Amino acid sequence: MEDTGVSFIAPEHVHPRRGGATTRPFVADPGAGVRTAEIVPDRRGGVGGALAAPSTPETVRAAVTQWLAGNPAPVGAAAVAAIKAGGRTSDDVRLFADLWIGEHGLRFAATAAVEMASMLLIDDHAASGTQHYPSSDRGVRHLRPGETQLTRWPATAVLLRVRAALAVAPDDEFEQVVTALMPFREGLPTARAACSTLVPRPDWVDADVADTVASRDSWRARLLLHATADAGQARLLAEIPEPWHLDIDRGLVFTLLDGVGPSAVSTLFHWLDQKIAQFSGAGTERWLFSLVATIPGDDVMTGLLSRSGSRAAKAALLEAARRFPARAMRILAEHDVADLLRGHVVEHLDLVNEVTPLLSLPAAGRVQAIVRAWHEVVTAPLSAVPPVLADPPWSRRQRVARPPVVTGLACTDVPAVTWLPGEREEWAERRRFREDPAVDWPAMAEKVINGTGRWDDEPGLLFARAPEEIARATLVRWEPRSSWDAPYWMPVAAARLGTDMLPALLTLARATPADYAALLLPFTSTEVAVLVADWSARLKTVRGPARQWLLRHPGAAARALIPPALGKPGTARRQAERVLLLLHGHGHTEEIRQAAAGYGPEAAAGVEALFVADPLAALPARMPTPPVWAAPGCSRRCG
Fold first, then answer.
1. Using N-to-C axis directions, what is the helix angle for 74-85 and 58-68, rounded to 10°?
2. Is 253 helix (H, G, I), strand (E, B) or coil?
3. Beta-sheet strands, E only, within 418-480
4. Which single residue of 67, 195, 297, 493 could bond 463 by disulfide (Cβ 3.0 to 4.6 Å)?
């Protein structure tokens, strides 16, 4: 059995649905009332200001008044939540659902959640294209025919939290909710899609998917991906949002797999084909490929094979082959993937008899040829073996001189930035921001520091456009958080603020090297050099930018890394030694010697000893196991 014991769902990331494969107990957060009361609206004037805005209709004002007076008014509750949540992506937004459930029950919460999804913050009197920007005249009202939601996260988060409670609700309470939602099924498309998300009835979902596909509505498409249980529908919905609107997260992906099953892989492949690394980050792409590798199915294996020109896809293909070796042998043989097939067959000779009857005659012939070649391997005479293999140094370990250790060395270089011709100007133009002369920069600075801003690009806007004294003071207190937009605006801020941006860049580069490594290229400091040395030794994904940095700043790299290269044995020393040898091999020996001389004659002698040491004598404490491809039976003549 090729798929026995396989599980590709992470239940903790699934947004449960009633009748779904994944459910878990629901308990409303008892502190939701206090925590939602502490949320500060992202607008001047707060809730009262939004209610007083000309765009807010009297019916909404009256409903909010009722809600704030303690009466169960779903429209009022939804309006307050919409005003307070704004465009937040933080987890505290979903607490509005807990508040409603805890104080007024599921029926009220479901109704309020649909109302919230049907509302938007807008200044109807603002210039075209700016109606949704934060301003003192932005109010709250229901969507009108032809309008759609623009803010993805808050309403979706609240809907999915209510749905988690509905998934395990008693039958009678659930039926009461369904009855309460029926009037919304006669309303606007956004309200209908919200109902389908709460209660994914096939008839509701089918109708809403058809309408969404016809209208090409991105917000409803992404919402309904949480509701559909059909692979064809999922693929149609996934094709609607533009790549930069995907915002793929684990909750969406695992909920889709929970609802649709393995056939959802066609949707995952579609996202991967949209080059999501450019918008959601290389880490998201690698994670999605690694998840695909855990899903059983011939279409998964062939899909990975057809994309194996990508490094991430190739790694996923090899992982899938390890998980499903019989399937991999069959598919690699049928597609005549000679290099991969050789190693795979040799590693899984025990599966050959099981797989061969399933193969076409040409594919079976390929597998048998590899097996015959494996058994026909002739041992070469010793004279034909290169000396380093005939008498390998690891078979006769010799006592080698202990590398010199020079203590007390420390690099005193201060952080600096060195721009190539035209580089700073190019960075400064990488991202353009909306111009708003009415921006309250001190207020925005506090929101950026506290993480309560409405827009993803507010940190970038602040650091790129705010008065420099505000921008630089904010950087000192800001805790950097990565977002899809950060790699695009950070070059602009770095070009403007120079080394003041370096601590934030280092924080993000340590967390997500693939997204931020290139942004360190103009900067030098001891921390940067040590980090780059670590990347160069460990991470293939950023080895290119790491080497580029080292060869761009050989003197700074040598000054920073000579102390650890002459320090006590360990990882830091090995990594620093490798960098110095890399620079030595690229013609930067004199710069290394000059840096070493600055630390004194003992350090200079230690560096010279590194240059003349025999690399074959530097053996690891435990020799690694030879890989499968190194076996004689895996030579190319097997094909």
1. 90
2. helix
3. none
4. 493
Q: Is the alpha carbon torsion for 427, 428, 432, 436 positive or negative? A: positive
Question: At 472, is the secondary structure helix, strand, or coil?
Answer: helix
For residue 141, with 0-12 CB atoms within 10 Å meaning exposed, 13-18 middle and 19 or more buried, which class applies? Answer: buried
Q: Which residues contact 527 (CB under 8 A, 6 or more apart)?
A: 415, 506
Domain with 43, as residue range(s), is: 11-223
Classify residue 78: in a domain, yes or no. Answer: yes
pTM recorded for the entire structure: 0.68
Tell me the per-residue pLDDT of 253-266, one tens digit each, with 9 for 90 and over. 999 999 999 999 99
19 assigned to some structural domain: yes
Alpha-carbon span 114 to 198, nearest angstrom: 9
Is residue 533 within 8 A of residue 580, CB to CB? The reply is no
Give a yes or no: residue 524 inside a domain: no
Strand ranges in 34-82 using DSSP code E only, listed in sequence order = none
Within 10 angstroms of residue 545's Cβ, the number of other Cβ atoms is: 22
Helical spans, DSSP H, in 451-542? 458-465, 468-477, 486-497, 502-511, 513-516, 526-538
Residue type, 307: R
> Is residue 238 a contact partner of residue 271, using CB atoms and an 8 Å limit?
yes
DSSP 320-378: HHHHSHHHHHHHHHHTT-HHHHHHHHHHTGGGHHHHGGGS-HHHHHHHHHHHHHHHT--
Residue 139 DSSP one-character state: E
The answer to whether position 253 is within a domain reads no
Tokens of 530: 């040590």
Q: For 93-108, give one letter per residue: b (16+ CB within 10 A) or e.
A: bbbbbbbbbbebbbbb
Report CA 95 to chain centroid distance, whole Å.
24
- Counted domains in the chain: 1
pLDDT tens for each residue of 455-514: 566 888 889 889 999 999 999 999 888 777 788 889 999 999 999 999 999 999 999 898
Provide CB contacts within 8 A for 91, sequence distance 6+. 157
> Which DSSP helix (H) or strand (E) runs through 607?
helix 601-612
**Which amino acid belongs to residue 330?**
R
